[in-house]
Here is the input.
Amino acid sequence: MTFATAPGATPLSPEDLAGLIPALTTQGELNEFEQMNIAKQAKANS
Here is the structure.
């Protein structure tokens, strides 16, 4: 699996990719998962 790194984003190493929980297979899935976590934390901190 290969992720395209957006400008300013931190690239993921093969070790980082192997350790993703849950197992994500696309950049879109990773973005969606991160957005859900951000929203969850924003709600918890409000």
